[in-house]
Every structure is written in structure tokens, then in C-alpha cells.
Amino acid sequence: MITAIVLIDTEPARIPEIAAEVAEIPGVSEVYSVTGEVDLVAMVRVREHERLADVIADRVSKVEGVLRTQTYIAFRAYSSLDLDQAFDLGLGD
């Protein structure tokens, strides 16, 4: 499983609507509204590296009101959650 953390700057008046639309994109597992320098943080989880472009560049970046994205690809997860097992149960893709 490949995980990307996507920082999203949006039009301020549309944060809830944009978050809801991004959350519906296949491959996006969570979207958080946050304080700080960006408006939203999306977690993208896909099985193949090539799918990142489909999800982030072709879908997230093109949501109306998204001004800019910055993507971080995770190398390793340090967590007590077994996310790969959750996706094997059919909760992903």
C-alpha cells in the first residue's frame, strides 16, 4: 500500500464542500480540516504508484476551489493500526 499525505489550500468560504468532494474520490481514505498554513489534509492510499497521479493530479487538484496541493509520499508507517489488513478486507480502493 502506498500512502500519500496531501496538503490542500482552498478557497476559504468553500472548505466544507471541498473537503466533502475530495473525501468521495476513490483512493482518498480521509480528509481533515486543519489549522495552520493549509486548509485540508487528505490521506491517499493506493496499491500502485501510478494511481497517485490519477487520484491527486487528475482528481484532487481539479476539484473546484482547490487552489494548490503539496504531496508527501510516506516511506514507512509507524502506527499501532494495521492499515494493510483493513484494505485487504475490502475497505480500500
From TrEMBL:
Single GO biological process annotation from the record: response to amino acid
Q: Name one Pfam family in it.
A: AsnC_trans_reg
Top-rank taxon of the source lineage equals Bacteria
Name the Gene3D superfamilies for this protein. Answer: 3.30.70.920
The record, for SUPFAM superfamilies, names: Dimeric alpha+beta barrel
Q: Which InterPro entries match?
A: Dimeric_a/b-barrel, Tscrpt_reg_AsnC/Lrp_C
Q: Which residues belong to any copy of the Transcription regulator AsnC/Lrp ligand binding domain? A: 6-76
- Please give an example of a GO cellular component term from this record: cytosol
Q: Which Gene Ontology terms cover its molecular function?
A: sequence-specific DNA binding
Q: What is this protein called?
A: AsnC family transcriptional regulator
Source species taxonomy: Bacteria, Bacillati, Actinomycetota, Actinomycetes, Micrococcales
